[in-house]
Amino acid sequence: MSLILEDLHRVVGGETYIEGISLELEPGSFNVLLGRTLSGKTSLMRLMAGLDSPTQGRVIMHGRDVTGVSVRKRNVSMVYQQFINYPGLTVYDNIASPLKLAKVSCGEIDRRVREIAEMLHIDPFLDRLPLELSGGQQQRTAMGRALVKDADIVLFDEPLVNLDYKLREEFREELRAVFSERNCIAVYATTEPAEALALGGNTAVLHEGRLLQYGRTEEVYHRPRDILSAEMFSEPPINILRGIISGSEVTFDSRLHFPIKEDLRSLPPGEYRFGVRASHISLSPRAEDDIAVQMSVDLAEISGSETFLHVHNELFHLAVHLAGVHDFKVGAPVTLYFPTHKIYAFDRHGAVVHIPTHLGGL
Amino acid sequence: MNKVQNNRAWWLILPMLLLVAFSAIIPLMTVVNYSVQDVFDANTRFFTGTEWFKEMLNDPALQAAVLRQFAFSLTVLAIEVPLGIGIALIMPKRGWQASAVLILVTMPLLIPWNVVGSIWQIFTRGDIGLMGWSLRELGYGYNITASPVDAWATIILMDVWHWTPLIALLCYSGLRSIPDAYYQAARIDRASQWAVFRHIQLPKLTNVLVIGVLLRFMHSFMIYAEPFVLTGGGPGSSTTFLSQSLTTMAIGQQDLGPSAAFSLIYFLIILLVSWVFYTAIMNMQKDKKQEGA
């Protein structure tokens, strides 16, 4: 049961929502749609589900063209950002509702509802109404409704946005476990690069209605096709610095020089844009060829057990992602270390021309 | 922890107490005062106890008016609630059509009660009224001054015309607050139109409907100006509702004692019915929750 999107366009009232997206999703795959708000994630999902039909292009499911076929005649299910359940029905009846409409026998319904409820840890609440449950339990009920009917495609439209951090971690693990045993296509939309990495599977990076890159999640992360894709798939966004390769040196903004590394040596001399991930910059040298830069702190945010630092010097601004909690005063000087062997290079058009080989972790 | 007791805070509720005293308690007490006495003039009065109340409760004309009043209120509720929901469901959801329809639907609500009565009085006249004339031309001997059935039907029609928009507006706002995702989810589930109504729209409307029904009940139970202008309570006393009986008694005949007693009974009926209705609805919701727990 594969899903093929062929050159999909969707234009509503002169506004382009989706612009020429082609994608092939394999049965049993877990696919993340990554993009900022208004990047077209929800629009694309609606096209996949058949809630909307494309202005141009085809949707092919299991070898059959289903472009104009309404959602009622397809076998899909969807989980939303809001917790959508039938308010007057108990959790049990909510989960059973797709099966009842599909005229499944009572015994079978009962068996499947209880199985799903147990899997999602909502079996103690089967007789309650959704609104009496916590947000997490309500969303589990909505997921139960989506999972109970063995849909060909299960769509998740930012389902964890309204839940707290701990619950989200729990959910992600469970989701992966649930789908590893199923042969349907799971599609999961998120705005957060970290969530895409945590979910694994495949990732499609979307930007302004266009598909930037699709592939295995780590692959897309480590090997961005261009600057935009690298920026979309990093939080804080990858640092982009203008620089020139000449002779045996790399020069950033005509001031910061460092000897060229072996792997960059294959690039012809000229102007490039170099990308350095926020998490690759550190407070202490990690390798002997790291270069020290003096910066001053603009802003230090602590999130959980990580610190996000925004710094600048007279040449450029940088975003730095440090592990652990660090205390910085605004305006304080700080010495940071650039990993010269973990630098991406992009040409003038933004296409990647060099990907560092020793990337290590994320 | 040491709590500092400062009783001066009680002074803060004084303005409220005064306001309530002058707006509600003192006028009500005046009525109570009249209801237990027979007052002839400023200096001549006799204490009558519960006599007026007994008299009022046993008055066949008033008993008939009470029954008539209940029949009227229940009939208009039975028509206006489903009709209002229906209208809300078919009203356009967005665009200029939504604004246009909204204004059209709201129009009857903006018309003063006695003007509504006058409009319908003219509308139903056999000689110049569009409806009265048309019905007669069609061969139906329509006459609200002679036929109680015609009078009743017309008053009910008038009330439905005047107040269904209120229910429709309340429901419309209730429907608009349902996120689109619910409808999408229902489409994905392949739920029927009826199932969408029964399991999504109706439950989401419960709260506005409780308000709507309570308001409409109290309103319709106190109806006065419209039938007074339209039929004057006739033919006979067939459309004389409680407020009109009361007004005739208090203003027309200056029977202050009996009408004071009657006012209190009237007030208690409305209070009682509203309370019963409200408690019943709240219990229903509580039961639903307890069933689940």
From TrEMBL, chain A:
SUPFAM superfamilies: MOP-like, P-loop containing nucleoside triphosphate hydrolases. PROSITE patterns: ABC_TRANSPORTER_2 (PS50893). Residues 3-233 form the ABC transporter domain. InterPro entries: ABC_transporter-like_ATP-bd, ABC_transpr_FbpC, ABC_transpr_MalK/UgpC-like, Mo/tungstate-bd_C_term_dom, NA-bd_OB-fold, P-loop_NTPase. This is ABC transporter ATP-binding protein. Keywords: ATP-binding, Cell membrane, Membrane, Nucleotide-binding, Translocase, Transport. Signal peptide: none annotated. One of its GO terms (molecular function) is ATP binding. It comes from Modicisalibacter luteus. Pfam families: ABC_tran (PF00005). It comes from the Bacteria.
From TrEMBL, chain B:
Its main location: membrane. It is a multi-pass membrane protein. Pfam families: BPD_transp_1 (PF00528). It is found in: Cell membrane. InterPro entries: MetI-like, MetI-like_sf, Sugar_ABC_transporter. Keywords: Membrane, Transmembrane, Transmembrane helix, Transport. The chain crosses the membrane at residues 12-36, 70-90, 102-123, 151-172, 205-225, 260-281. Residues 66-277 form the ABC transmembrane type-1 domain. The keyword rRNA processing does not apply. Belongs to the binding-protein-dependent transport system permease family. This is Carbohydrate ABC transporter permease. It comes from Modicisalibacter luteus.
